[in-house]
Structure formats: structure tokens, C-alpha cells
Specification:
By secondary structure, this protein is an alpha+beta fold. The chain has 14 helices and 12 strands. It binds a DNA duplex (18 and 18 nucleotides) through helix 3, helix 8, strand 9 and strand 12.
DNA sequence: TCTGGGGTCCTAGGACCC
DNA sequence: TCTGGGGTCCTAGGACCC
């Protein structure tokens, strides 16, 4: 039987903050979202204090700090860099790896014959990452991706301290699924678990016993795959060649509400510029530019969501054309008198530059579109280290006036913030 | 007062083709 | 009055993930 492994970093953002602050080894740590709005990561100690994932910071701030907890604004430069280091190590250990998220990767253990070897490999993996990067990981090993998630879940709670769990024998699998609520299964979210509960299905074991045809008919092929995977039948393959992106989103919530069109325009311009950089980095061109603006979903009195798209006559990757499209959409969806809390831009309908369908009769100039690869390349180069070239419609202050009061240094990605020693 | 950001996949339905 | 059968492509919306 083929085995897969899921390597999952423990409380990743909180662990990253600890790498350069060993003094915080036992201290509760939480990391906040942009604008220091919500809690998006918690150390084990913070979890034990009852701090929930996604809770608004202002609700728990006082009690948490009073108990000696430590808080950080999010520092994605640091997390991204440490993630790369972890993934590089894993990449060197196996032939096939799928980097699933910033803190998770699936490994193909095709070179491993039996359960004991798999376990030893897991321990070796974990120790190496711990020693080389300083990040603790847990490892779940099983025949299918869905079961590696289950195994990783158990690895979190084992008392032997290895953080590695191998789930292989059918008897063990069923035994564990019996005590696992369906909401904990990878691929079963809030909605599905509610619907399944209504049918009297509560444990992963009960779900695994369901009739496949019934699940397919009543739900979808997605849940069917989950059921099969719980039974040990691999349906979701390791995807080790990253597909090109299909859409790019840049969006932010605002610290203060915004009512004026001109202010929104300059913020959307900032988003558009960043989206253009991402698009060119992906080596893609887009044919559709969408913009959305919305009031706070917690403001019950005054709610509005605007969304619309602009179809470009041919695929482009020039920021000036993206700005033009974004501006047009914003003008049509903007309504006066609303306190806007969030906005964003979405680029879609990508085509690879090698296969661009050009207009038969008109040049990009005649279509009133700007497209100049050399200019964009030059600007990207100039801005790569430190932004030097701005578009006239942009505003200063980055993507949006974001508040990050408690951000740690960019220890590994900025010369001026390297850790020092006395 | 203050509530994140960035993705993917699947399905149903409509438009259109021969 | 009677009006086929088999496709593709696109989009919106809903579900999920971290």
C-alpha cells in the first residue's frame, strides 16, 4: 500500500515569532490580522487560555494581556521566508511534494516500504526541520490525503511527544474515525456537517459507511471522494506541478470607514498596481478586471455591496490598462452615502503570453489599451527592492492605511532588521 | 470604536453550435 | 398541429481550504 505524509507546522505564525524570540518559549502568543483586527494564530498556551481562532482582538485584548500573553501584528515577510526554508528541506527528502499552503505539504512516501520505516522517516523529518529552521511540525502518515489529515490531527494530541502518527491498519482507522466528529474531516465544512447531522450522521465512521451512490446523488462528487478517501481509497492525487493561477485578488479592510469616491479611487489604484505586479510575476495576461466595494457586514443599518467587471478587448498585463478598467468599474458601482469598510480588485480570464489572441483589425493603441512589456519590466525592476515609481492615481502609504502596531522585525529578509548579538 | 486575505473546485443553467 | 440529440463554453453562486 502506498503511503502519503502530511507535514503541518504547529501554530505556524506563532512559532515563527518564537524562532528569534526564544525568551517567549513558554509565553502565550497570538498573531493578529491586518489592522490588528482578529486573532489569526495562537500558540498552544494561548489556545489553552481559551482564545478562539478568528475572534476580534478588542474582545479578548484586556483579559489576555492581563494574564501575561504576548501579541504580534502579522509579519508575512518573516512567515513566508521561514515557510520557504521548511519546504526546501522537505523537497530534498522526497521525490514528490505538494506545497499545499504556507504551513503544510503533502509528501509521497513511495520509497518507503512499511509502517515502521514511515514512522522513522517522520521523526527524522521533524527533527531536521526543528534543528535547521527552528519550527516544530507534526506529521500524519496514511494511505490517502484525507486520512493523513486525520493522522495529523491525532499527532497533535499524542502524549509520546514525537508529533508523528502513522495510520495504516484498517482496524485502527475505523476505531479512530468512530470518535472523530464529521466537522473535523478535511472537506466537510460548516454547511455540509449541518446537513449531514440532519441525516443522523455525526462521526467520520458513520460517514465512511454511507452508500456512495446516495452521497453522490444527494451531495456531490466532492463528498463522494471524501467518503472513499476515509475508506482508504486514494482519490485526491498529490499535485506536484503547481498549476498557473486562475485569478489574482488584492483586497483589504480599512481601519477607518471611507465615504469619498476619490479616496477609494486611490486605494483601488494601489490594489491594481499590486495586482499587476502579481500578474506579471505569474507570467500571465488577463482579460477581465473586476472591482468590489462593501460596507461592514456588522453594520446592520447601512449595507451595500458593489461588484462588477470590465471586459478588456484583448489580454494585457500592463498596469495602466488595469488601472483604466478598475477606474471604470469603480465609477459604475460606487454609491454615495455609504461608509465603506472593504474593497478589492480581482483579475481573471488569464492567458499565457505565448498564446495571445490578438484583435484582427485593431492595434492595442486603437483599442485605447496600453501594453508595453519593456516599460513594465523596467518599472518592476526599479520597484523590486524599494518602490520608487508610482502611478499618478495612487496614494502614499502602501496598499491601504493599515495599522500594525506590534509587528516584529523582518529578521530574515531585510538587512536593517537582521537579528544582532551582543 | 475596533471583526483578515487569498485561493480552488463543482454544479446548474443559459447561450450557442452542428 | 406536430418540433431531436448531442455537444461545448461560459458564468454565477455555493461550497470548501488555510
Amino acid at each position: 500500500m502506498k503511503l502519503l505524509a502530511l507535514v503541518d507546522c504547529d501554530n505556524f505564525y506563532a512559532s515563527c515569532e518564537r524562532v528569534f524570540r526564544p525568551d517567549l518559549k513558554k509565553t502565550p502568543i497570538v498573531v493578529l490580522s491586518n489592522n490588528d483586527g482578529c486573532v489569526i494564530a495562537r500558540s498552544k498556551e494561548a489556545k489553552a487560555m481559551g482564545i478562539k481562532m478568528g475572534v476580534p482582538w478588542f474582545q479578548v485584548k484586556e483579559a489576555y494581556l492581563a494574564q501575561g500573553g504576548k501579541v504580534f501584528s502579522s509579519n508575512f515577510a518573516l512567515y513566508g521566508d521561514l515557510s520557504k526554508r521548511v519546504m526546501n528541506i522537505l523537497d530534498g527528502m522526497v521525490k514528490r511534494i505538494e506545497i499545499y499552503s504556507i504551513d503544510e505539504a503533502f509528501l509521497d512516501l513511495q520509497h518507503i516500504q512499511n509502517k515502521n520505516q514511515a514512522y522513522e522517516f517522520g521523526v527524522y523529518c521533524r527533527n531536521t526541520i526543528r534543528q535547521w529552521v527552528g519550527i516544530p511540525v507534526r506529521i500524519g502518515i496514511a494511505p490517502t490525503k484525507t486520512l493523513t489529515k486525520v493522522a495529523s490531527h491525532i499527532a497533535k494530541n499524542t502524549n509520546d511527544g514525537t508529533g508523528v502518527y502513522c495510520l495504516k491498519k484498517q482496524k485502527d482507522i475505523f476505531h479512530i474515525l468512530q470518535t472523530l466528529p464529521i466537522r473535523e474531516i478535511w472537506g466537510v465544512g460548516h454547511n455540509l456537517s449541518r446537513q449531514l447531522n440532519q441525516l443522523g450522521i455525526y462521526s467520520a465512521y458513520e460517514l465512511a459507511q454511507m452508500d456512495i451512490r446516495f452521497i453522490r446523488k444527494k451531495f456531490s462528487v466532492v463528498l463522494e471522494r471524501t467518503v472513499r478517501e476515509l475508506r482508504g481509497e486514494p482519490c485526491i492525487q498529490i499535485d506536484d506541478h503547481s498549476e498557473p493561477k486562475k485569478q489574482i485578488v488584492v483586497s483589504r479592510s480599512f481601519r477607518d470607514r471611507i465615504e469619498s469616491l476619490s479616496e477609494l479611487k486611490s486605494l483601488i489604484s494601489n490594489f491594481a498596481v499590486r495586482a499587476g505586479e502579481k500578474l506579471r510575476h505569474e507570467k500571465q495576461k488577463c482579460s477581465q478586471v473586476s472591482v468590489f466595494i462593501s460596507t461592514s457586514r456588522f453594520n446592520k443599518q447601512l449595507q451595500y455591496r458593489g461588484f462588477d467587471s470590465f471586459q478588456l478587448p484583448c489580454p494585457i498585463d500592463d498596469t495602466r490598462s488595469i488601472l483604466m478598467g478598475a477606474n471604470k468599474v469603480l465609477n459604475t458601482i460606487f454609491k454615495h452615502g455609504y461608509p465603506y469598510a472593504k474593497a478589492g480588485i480581482l483579475l481573471s480570464q488569464f492567458s499565457h503570453p505565448a498564446f495571445i489572441q490578438k484583435s484582427l483589425f485593431e492595434t492595442t493603441d486603437q483599442l485605447h489599451l496600453k501594453q508595453d512589456e519593456n516599460l513594465m519590466q523596467t518599472i518592476d525592476d526599479l520597484n523590486s527592492i524599494h518602490t520608487q515609481i508610482y502611478y499618478a492615481s495612487q496614494c502614499s502609504g502602501g496598499l491601504s492605511p493599515i495599522q500594525k502596531k506590534m509587528v516584529s522585525p523582518k529578521y530574515t529578509t531585510n538587512w536593517w532588521e537582521l537579528p544582532t548579538t551582543k
